[in-house]
Each structure stands twice: as structure tokens, then as C-alpha cells.
Amino acid sequence: IEILMRMLDDEGNIILPMAFIPAAERYGLMPRLDRWTVENIIKTCGSTIAERFHISRKDCMFAINLSGVSLKNQEFRHWLHDTLKEKPGLGELLCFEITETAAIGDLVTINDFIAELRAFGCRFALDDFGSGLSSFGYLKNLKVDYLKIDGAFVQDMGEDTLDYSMVEAIHRIGRQVG
């Protein structure tokens, strides 16, 4: 289940993330928004989601996008660590999605964060893979479990042989690095 953040305006209309996330990042609000998102997933669904939908717990996963600002924020990282420590088994339900651009400049910190949360069973996905200039370099250096290939490649791959070849190459290399 992919969790997508949205905001409502005063009239109840949906504001898409591209309209508010850049401002939240600029003003340092993303760790608070990411924390709110994770807290509400825990509160709303917790570890009972598998039972509610009659899904095997091992087949149940919440994919949550995390901002690069949050990934590098010590307070957010400590809070998430403590939350996972208090709720055994919760980490097995979570997959945090990060983008290449979120990891730029601090691969060591991001990989440390990934290793720390893996100890709780969390998984990680590299989101919008292929949209950055150095995609394959990040693939080699980021310890993620999944690749989410950028939709620009996937959308027309049935008709566009170049898109098909790109997806095929990403798939092959992704399997090679595990």
C-alpha cells in the first residue's frame, strides 16, 4: 500500500505535493510532515492491517516517501528509531521510499539510516529511478531493496523500443546488484 501525502485547501480541494512540499522543505517543515505521516499510519493501521484485509502479514507493506531533509535530520531519525523500538514488528510493515536527489551529497548518512532501520525489518525503495543524471551510480552505492522505475520510461515502453531497452537494462542491473 503506497501512502501518498496530500493537503486540503480551505474549500476542501486537494493540493498536490508538488505545490506544498518544496515550500515545506525550504522552511524545514518536512521532518514534521514525515513524522505526522508515519504517526498516522501507525495510529490508523498499525499492525492490524493484515488482519483487517485478510492479508498475510509477510505480504503487507506500507510504502512511505521520506524527504531528504528528514533522512538527514537527527531529531526525526531518533524519533523513528525510538518508535520502531517501542513497537516490535512494525518495521516489517514499512518500506521507506527515497529519491536519488534526496541521497545526493550524503550517501554515508543515508546508508547508515538504512542499516539502522533494517535492524527493525524496514525495507527501502529507490523512487523515480532513472530520472537523475547519475542513476546507476546511486544504484551501486545505495543499499535499497527495491527500484521504482521512473514512470517516464515505463509509460510508453510497449510502443517505444528505447524506453523498453532502458527498463530492461535497469532490470538487469538491478538484479545484478541484488
Strand order of the largest sheet: 1-4-5-6-7
Task: Tell me roughly what share of residues is in helical segments.
Answer: 40-55%
Shape: globular
Order of H and E elements: EEEHHHEHHEHHEHEHH
Distance between the termini: 23 Å
Note the beta-strand portion: 15-25%
Average pLDDT value? 86
Helical stretch tally: 10
The poorly predicted ranges are: none
Strand count, sense and barrel status of the largest sheet are:
5 strands, parallel
Rounded to the nearest angstrom, the radius of gyration is: 17 Å
Label the structural class.
alpha/beta
Number of strands: 7
Describe it.
The chain is an alpha/beta fold and 178 residues long. It contains 10 helices and 7 strands. The chain has helices at residues 17-26, 30-44, 49-52, 68-71, 74-86, 100-103, 107-118, 135-141, 151-154, 161-176; strands spanning 2-3, 7-8, 14-15, 62-65, 94-99, 123-129, 146-149. The strands form 2 sheets. Strands 1-4-5-6-7 form a 5-stranded parallel β-sheet. Helix 2 (30-44) packs parallel to helix 5 (74-86). The protein is globular and about 45 Å long. The model has no long low-confidence stretch (mean pLDDT 86).
